[in-house]
Structure formats: C-alpha cells, structure tokens
Amino acid sequence: MIKKIINKISSPQFYIILNFCFFSIILILAVLPLIGNYSNIFWVFDLFVHFKIHYIFILLALNLFFLFSKKFMLLALSIVSLFINLSFLNPIKINYFVKYKPHIEKREGIRTMFYNIYWHNNNVVKNTKYINKIKPDIIMLAEVSPKTYSLYKDQLNDYIYSKYSDNPNVDEPDNGIALFSKIKPENDIKIIVFEEWTCPSLQIDIKVNNKIVSVIGTHPYSPVNKNRTFGRDKQFVCLSEYIKNQSNPVLLIGDFNSTIWQKNFQYLVRNANLENSMDKFGFQPTWPAFFPPFLRITIDHVLYHKEIELNNKFLGSLSGSDHLPVIADFSVK
Fold first, then answer.
1. What is the dihedral angle through the alpha carbons of 43, 45, 50, 51, rounded to the nearest 10 degrees?
2. What domain range is 9 assigned to?
3. Tens digit of pLDDT at every position of the chain (333 positions)
4. Same domain, 163 and 257
5. What is the pTM of this model?
6. CA neighbor of 261 nearest in space, from 94, 59, 60, 52
7. Which of 145, 166, 172, 268 is deepest in the core (most CB within 10 A)?
C-alpha cells in the first residue's frame, strides 16, 4: 500500500497536477485583491477585499517553498502575484506593522471603550469587572438586547447617564446598541437612525477643555448576505454625510464590519474628513478574537477629526466575544 502511494507521488502525472494546483493558487491570489472593487456586481466579492495581508503571507510562504524546491517558473509567477497584491494595499503605511505597547494604567484625557459583546455572550459580571479595571469614561456596547442592557445598567453603578436603542428597521432584539457615561452630556444622548437596512448609532456630546466633542458609536451590519452588505455600505455613506454636517469635532468608534480597504469605508473616512487611529497605533486586529493576532483582521476602528488628539489606543482582553474591546484616550487640541 505504501509502495503504491510512493509510486503515485513520484509519477510525472502527479507533478503535473501539483504544479497546476500551485499555478491556480498563484492566479487566484493575484485576482482576489481586485474583485472586491466589484461588489456591486456580486455582493460576495466584497468579502475578499478584507484579507489582503493574508494573501501576502501565503505568497511569501509559497515564494520560499518554490525557491528551496527550485521551481523557478512558479517562483517568478508567485513574485508577480506578490507585487500585484502589494500594489493594492493602498492605503497602508509602514507604522501599521510597528508593535505598539499600550499605556493601560496611564490615562491621557477622556477614555472611551467600544465592545461588541456578542449576543451569545453572557459574561456580564466578567465584562463589568474588566470595565471597572480599565475605567473608561464612556462605554459603547454592541449586540445588546434590552435584557442585557438592564443587566449592565445594574452592574455599572458609576455610569449615571445611559441610553439604549434596538434596531427599528429590522426585528432583531439582540442587535441593539447601548451607551454608558460617567460624564454628563451637554444635551440628550441621540439615537441616530438612517434608512432601511441600516443600524442605529448613539451620540453623546460632552465638554472637553471648554469645547464640545461628539462621541458616536456605531455598528453597521456584517456583510453575510446581499441586504446586510447593502445596509452596511449605506450606513457608511449616511454616516459620512451626517458627520460632515456636524459643527463639533467627532470621535467615531465602532465595529464597522469592514477593513480599511473596503471602498465605502474609505468613502466614509474621506468624505467626513476623518483620521484613522491605525495611522498612529498600527493594525491592532480585533476579529475573530479567539484567533492568533496574525490571523485576525481589523474591523473595529477609532476614527476622529483632526481637532481631536488621540493619545492612546489599545485592545482589551478576550472575554467570550468574537471581538476584542477597543479602548482609546483622547483630548482636544
């Protein structure tokens, strides 16, 4: 039996099939970073735009394998595919890859925390203990049901001001968003609702150094089907217009269900004239939380106007959710 397997592996037909498989993989990896721009044709194409770094890791591994196995034709094709992928990494900067050491204990201004708690996650006590350790001034929680909101409200006694919104557009009681604040808002906490298939966002206006700053938490749909992909992209467009018309500087935090390469996310950042915390603090990938960091992607973001100084940003610890919490300290310039 073993002899038959060895004979098959050493046969010319096997090497032809193996080389064809390698060639197909190289070709697919050269195309994948391109097709994400054509999600208007087929929504599934959007999913492939988020893993550009992973494609590069695979191609680098293939290059090494082809080099040491002396498959120089495949090596040349793989190098071409690698350069194609590198050319489509824009926007990207070298400091995205610099390991950032967070100052967890050192607070620098107003501390915010966004956490998609995952609607299956019932670790309310564990999460509130971690919140009390980190001591954020403003907390945004996503995938919250009315019952979960009540549980957190009972536990977070120091957070006097709070707000909850379910999704008025779709009957999904576990997909609400909640806000808790120690800081007194300058006016009522706002529920921001746009068109059909978008999700609610929450806005709190606070005074920082005699200036009003708007902190907005958002959680667009995950792109798991056509309607949700459309809703997420629509929310990016609507949010960009909403923020563009704000008189106060805005700090926008949330689970955007998108990496920086998605075209509508890029439109949001560009049209609303926002900065991305990745420019200062690197990738800090957040999902899936139970994967090792090099396999995760960054879909939880901190975006802000240039009048805001982002002093610190780090990820929280794993606590039963498929996301990691995102904590950011900010002040006003």
1. 150
2. 2-90
3. 544 444 444 567 777 888 889 999 999 999 998 888 788 888 999 999 999 999 999 999 999 999 998 999 999 999 999 999 988 887 666 556 666 666 666 778 999 999 999 987 778 888 999 999 999 999 999 999 999 999 999 999 999 999 999 887 677 778 899 999 999 999 999 999 998 888 999 999 999 988 999 999 999 999 999 999 999 999 999 999 999 999 999 999 999 999 999 999 999 999 999 999 998 888 899 999 999 988 999 999 999 999 999 999 999 988 889 999 999 999 998
4. yes
5. 0.90
6. 52
7. 268
